[in-house]
Amino acid sequence: MSEELGRVRRMWHLLEPLHAVLYYAPEAFEEAAALGCRTDERWPSYFAWRAAPLGEVGAGRVVDTFYSFSPGMVREYVPAAWSVASPGVVLAARTRAVDRVYRALLGEQAAGPELAEAAALVRRAAEAADVAGRPLAAANAVLPWPDEPHLVLWQAATILREHRGDGHVAALVDAELDPVESLVSFAAIGAARPEVFASRGWGDAEWRAARQRLVKRGLLMEDGTATEAGRALRTEVERRTDEAAVAPWRALGEEARGRLVELLGPLWVAAIGSGLLPSETTLGIGKA
For residues 25 and 91, what is the distance between their CA atoms, to the nearest angstrom? Predict the structure, then answer.
């Protein structure tokens, strides 16, 4: 991995927890419940929060853009989410949720000058992102910018993480890894336990069938671990993902990016130290 791509990956690692707390924080579940969403599990609000920028889309659109979720799982929550609340109403509630989550998570930092400086820098990077062909990034990029810096920070972080995610999907498609194969191959290199990937809704038979397809391609061994070719392919997928995410950070510049790393550090610590986020996820951060 080149030094520049390593820096790009570091920015993702710093920003991802600041985006992801929305899906786990009690304040967000309270806002979801006020809309009428079920909160006995996190998925009704997750699909509503994340898909709302796309508009009142059907399950097919979410299957295509979210990629790793099984179509059957998606159909449980979309388009049912829009019968609970329209996407516009969901987006307003999402903003309220982020406001409450960040104020609870960050305390005085949420209104501090360092966060405002960080928000301005992340926004600069987000506005430099080319969102053509990146549907989730594009959908978030056209939303109005909020006034409060902590809300700007979350929105900019979200644009950048979806920009990266859209590029990752493209890299998986180029590697001829279908949605379930993308998870099986990632588990095979130790990114997370297979049980963690079960959260994406694929059944045992679908997982086994995907494993056998990858065995036939020479990417997996019979026990489910990756072959040398399988590891090389996943390395290439990650490299291409990082390359596709370079432009916003290159536009920001080295000095500003270095300053942003300093500013994000305490915010990252607050997110990780909150206990809200799982220690092992399907993203493989810190492992892959």
Answer: 17
Encoded tokens for 40: 């006995």
Q: Which of 12, 9, 20, 260 is nearest to 120 (CA)?
A: 260
Lookup: tokens for 245: 């995410």
Per-residue tokens: 56 = 């009142």
Residue 193 region by backbone torsions, left for phi larger than 0, else alpha for psi between -120 and 50, else beta: beta
- pLDDT per residue as tens digits for the range 45-60: 999 999 999 999 999 9
CA–CA–CA angle 68, 70, 72 (5° rounding)? 160
124 contacts 285 by C-beta, under 8 angstroms: no
- CA 243, 245, 248 angle in degrees (round to 5)? 125
Nearest to 182 by CA among 279, 67, 37: 67
Measured CA to CA, the distance from residue 106 to residue 119 in angstroms comes to 14
Distance CA 111, CA 88 (A): 26
Burial letters 212-246, b for 16+ CB under 10 A, else e: ebbbebebbeeeeebbeebbebbeebbebbbebbe
Count, in order, helices (H) and strands (E) of the chain. Answer: 16, 0
* Residues β-bridged to residue 220: 226
Q: Which of 147, 92, 149 is closest to 115 using CA atoms?
A: 149
Spatial distance between the Cα atoms of 238 and 172, rounded to a whole number of angstroms: 9
Q: Residue 249: what are its φ and ψ, rounded to 5°?
A: -80, -30
Q: What is the pLDDT of residues 13-68, one digit of tens each?
A: 999 999 999 999 999 999 999 999 999 999 999 999 999 999 999 999 999 999 99
